[in-house]
Amino acid sequence: MEIFLGEPNNEEIKEYVRTLQTRDNLCIRTYYSPDPLIFSYIISKYIKNKTFITFKSSCDLELKQDSNGKWIIDNTIKKHYYLGNNAFSSYLVINNDDILAILTGVISSTIIERRRLSEWELSVIKSLEQFGVIIEKNLRVPNFKALPLFLSLMLSLDPFIPTISGNRENSINLMKEINANETTKLEDLDENQLNTLLYRVISLIIKENPKFNRDDIITDRIFYLDYDTLELSFSLIYSFDTFGSGEIAQFVTTPSYAEVLLDKFRSTLGKGFSLQLQNATKSYYIVNTNNFNSPLLTQLILLQLQKIKRDKTVVLKIGNNYYTSSYFEQSRRSEGLIKIDDRVKNENTV
Known about the structure:
The chain has helices spanning 10-20, 34-46, 99-113, 119-127, 149-154, 168-177, 191-206, 229-243, 246-253, 258-269, 295-304, 341-345; strands at 25-29, 50-54, 61-66, 69-74, 79-84, 134-139, 218-224, 227-228, 274-280, 284-290, 313-318, 321-325, 337-339. With 350 residues, the protein is an alpha+beta fold.
């Protein structure tokens, strides 16, 4: 039977979330993804006594996502709050110490779910302009305000720019093609240089994804405290996927940990990287990688390039070993990268 859910009652949900922080104790069952974890950890900061966050046990409060969207389920009052596609983090009470984490939760949600900001999310972000949040239409590449443009292009994962993302030499050569150099920043380009750059980038992407257009690369960019929330969100996703949910807990409790996340991301990917879909088995997409060890980010790149679907676990072949992550193997007790050599080698290619 088809169910018509309608639009989320955003103000009701926001007020309900506000009441959560007044509870003495709270058990939250969440799922393994940055946005619901950020929501859970921020709520836990304000609970008077104890908070228990779990991925498996039954709890008074559950965060879920299904084919219809996201849900907050309160088992104590037997009520389901429907969020649509909106990020859980977009309903949190605004405190200065939490703004960076809230923004990162919202942006990471859009990245992983491959969608644009909803009207509700954008309205929440606009309400934060009074606290110093900056919103502008500009190029969707990491931290173009602070980094040389060639490095921003090289670190770009969404959009992933074939032959440029991960390739230092090709990115520098692209700068030379538009009469720029290794130190040029985006703000240094004149109109002709910018138009030429956009044409070259879009041309490279549409060879793999014909649906890509200018609106996919000129988007709403969100900045706060000199942080580019796009770059920070990718950095958080990377550390979450390769090290575990403790990275998110550390970031929520100590916002300055953002610097550590960015350093891990830049120092690893800034060396250059590559990935290539090798083959598919019944259960896995096998991907050869060089200096790229995040199965989740690999999935997001290959989805853009229309090489895979979300129907199988992404496995990275690094040397002679095979790895996935807890994002795909949530039944495992360990977090971060998981070595699964035997299972992969025992599967036949489709």
